[in-house]
């Protein structure tokens, strides 16, 4: 059931934290560790368009899902490329995103999956064939959706966050800290070679715990997935475990599967310097399946 003992230990820890969370409000509030200003930090690149969008095109639709702490600005360049190729493209802003880190901490993973389900059903009214895809945690949500809807035509995964790259001790620390510490500062790199990313400057810890639980649930659903699957990962990714793609391919039942590596890209592979190649691979994968 689990990939290794480390992962099992993490999930056992999550169950213990659930009990602590129920008492955390009564036990302690370490507000000194996280000032009000930290929680009210504006988004990185707030000038970008990060709201939900629906780009109407042809009868084939693509649902794109952004990652944890990001907004739809993360998937918009790829969405525009797909729309220009004639596809209808939709992307919902997930609950807790595009507002404040505190708001994201108050959301549950079932709210994210419900938002994806709603967006999928709306897209289904317009399109007869639908592909679902996502960046990082958005890839997990795409897998979750595909496990519920076998009629989905194909799955597009960009740096899927099946497991994080952080060490067990680091993960152990922030799982334990999540009832008391609101967030931890994120290292947001300024890379002029990449397109701009929009999202929170911090990692809300309770939301991070929800991500770990989503990882576990998604792993258990892989055996229910039969759709064609495309996975694009980045060699320089320091956010997710580079074995995430293999974990997915070992678990799904898909007969059609493709895996590609971007040698010069980092975690947000759909915004990095090899975007053109990522877009071309994605378009070719979709076109092969609809013709």
UniProtKB/TrEMBL annotation:
<dbReference type="Pfam" id="PF12146">
    <property type="entry name" value="Hydrolase_4"/>
</dbReference>
<dbReference type="GO" id="GO:0052689">
    <property type="term" value="F:carboxylic ester hydrolase activity"/>
</dbReference>
<dbReference type="InterPro" id="IPR029058">
    <property type="entry name" value="AB_hydrolase_fold"/>
</dbReference>
<dbReference type="InterPro" id="IPR012354">
    <property type="entry name" value="Esterase_lipase"/>
</dbReference>
<dbReference type="InterPro" id="IPR022742">
    <property type="entry name" value="Hydrolase_4"/>
</dbReference>
<protein>
    <recommendedName>
        <fullName>Serine aminopeptidase S33 domain-containing protein</fullName>
    </recommendedName>
</protein>
<feature type="domain" description="Serine aminopeptidase S33">
    <location>
        <begin position="62"/>
        <end position="274"/>
    </location>
</feature>
<dbReference type="InterPro" id="IPR051044">
    <property type="entry name" value="MAG_DAG_Lipase"/>
</dbReference>
């Amino acid at each position: 059931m689990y990939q290794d003992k480390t992962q099992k230990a993490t999930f056992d820890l999550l169950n213990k934290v659930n009990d602590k969370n129920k008492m955390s409000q009564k036990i302690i509030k370490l507000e000194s560790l996280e000032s009000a200003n930290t929680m009210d930090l504006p988004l990185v690149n707030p000038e970008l368009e990060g709201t939900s969008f629906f780009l109407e095109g042809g009868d084939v639709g693509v649902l794109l899902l952004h990652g944890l702490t990001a907004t739809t600005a993360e998937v918009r360049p790829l969405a525009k490329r797909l729309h220009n190729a004639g596809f209808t493209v939709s992307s919902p802003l997930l609950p807790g995103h595009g507002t404040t880190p505190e708001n994201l901490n108050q959301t549950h993973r079932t709210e994210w999956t419900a938002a994806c389900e709603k967006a999928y059903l709306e897209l289904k009214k317009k399109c007869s064939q639908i592909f679902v895809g996502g960046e990082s945690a958005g890839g997990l949500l795409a897998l979750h959706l595909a496990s519920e809807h076998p009629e989905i035509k194909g799955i597009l995964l960009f740096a899927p966050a099946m497991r994080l790259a952080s060490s067990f001790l680091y993960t152990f620390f922030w799982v334990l800290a999540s009832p008391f510490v609101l967030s931890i500062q994120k290292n947001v790199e300024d890379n002029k070679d990449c397109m701009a990313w929009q999202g929170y400057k911090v990692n809300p810890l309770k939301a991070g715990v929800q991500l770990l639980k989503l990882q576990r649930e998604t792993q258990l659903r892989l055996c229910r997935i039969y759709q064609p699957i495309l996975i694009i990962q980045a060699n320089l990714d320091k956010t997710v475990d580079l074995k995430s793609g293999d974990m997915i391919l070992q678990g799904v039942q898909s007969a059609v599967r493709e895996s590609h590596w971007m040698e010069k890209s980092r975690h947000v592979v759909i915004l990095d310097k090899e975007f053109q190649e990522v877009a071309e691979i994605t378009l070719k994968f979709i076109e092969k399946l609809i013709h």
